[in-house]
Amino acid sequence: MIALQRAIRRVKNGKDGLVNIFSDSKSSLEVLTGPKTYHPLAHEVRRDISETAAEGRAVRLFWVRAHAGIAGNERADRLARRAALTKRRQRTMIGSAVVS
């Protein structure tokens, strides 16, 4: 959910009219697209999507199968694994190649 939030906030700061965001987190996507949620982060993400849409830009969310050899998804998994194993926190810029 945090990765989706970061991607959508990046979209909010951009100028693209249509943005596709791919995620292998089916549960996060179901929470975001479901009729009701009590998850506070999901409310924030939904608000960000609504604000982006109000500016005339569209955000489309897509589910991709994990560990299916999709280059961008595999790279995102490697970055997440590395971050999880790192004891100290560090900021990592997410390039458009990962998001694309």
UniProtKB/TrEMBL annotation:
It holds the Pfam family RNase_H. Residues 1-85 form the RNase H type-1 domain. SUPFAM superfamilies: Ribonuclease H-like. PROSITE patterns: RNASE_H_1. It comes from the Eukaryota. GO terms for molecular function: nucleic acid binding; RNA-DNA hybrid ribonuclease activity. This is RNase H type-1 domain-containing protein.
